[in-house]
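Quick note —
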Amino acid sequence: MSIEEIKTAPLPLAAPLASAADLPAVVLSDLAFSHERGVPVLEDVNLNVGQGDFLALLGPNGGGKSTLLRLILGLEQPCCGSITVFGRPPAEGSRQIGYVPQFSSMQRDFPASVLDMVLMGGASPDRRGGSWESGPAARERARSYLDLLGLGGLEKRGIGALSGGQRQRALVARALMGSNQKLDAREAPCAAPSPFLLLLDEPTASIDPEGKFCFYEFLDRLRGHITIIVVSHDLFVASPFFSGIVFVNKTVTELEQSGLSPENLTLLFGKHLHDCPIADLQHAGNSPRHEGCTHPSCWPDRGNTV
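Predicted structure written out below.
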């Protein structure tokens, strides 16, 4: 081809850029993290979370669950590997992430209504320390989140008058204010113009057993509309709601959807003695005898064979 032909040749069409709706919510690639003193916390972590997923992170204390959330939030930096949230580094997508910590520092006697507390979730940092919208549109959106989470009609109540479960749901509503969109559980999930990720760290730690189930039931209304990742120990209560379960213990293992299979229980809780209820569940439905096991179903006089 001559120089003149090269000059006049049409430029190749650029590949279209992927929209936010087409990108995974979170991608962790070959991730590792260590404390300053060199103690490894997470190693060889690879995980792909799709938009609209409701994912549970389970595992032992010290296994790295909360650290993983902090990495996704951009509060910690990995020593190697990469993290993207909707295709961008966490620091660039912070407005698309909401976070509910395990223990809130909120003072119950703080003189604010439930609606005021939720509106604060839309705060934008500035030199004065932060400000948030409180006009009609913002208040309507805050009320829609409260309705969605079963707190409709309580917006004028003081935050100190809420029960533990109600307070946690109000904190979720506050975190959702960063999404800048109305959510309606009665409508089919659709690709949002600005997708949103909600992270929750042990959100039911201070809620009674009955309230725990209700809390996850309300969260399930958000499934498909936003992406949810929750650190939880409430496997038996919450497993019906999760679209996926990931075991975290220095690395990550995606569990089968059977969730409560004997193999998964052993992975989550380790080996247990025969007088423990976990051991009964781990051996449920197992007929072969396991050599060296102390569970009654494995005793030789039961007639089982290896």
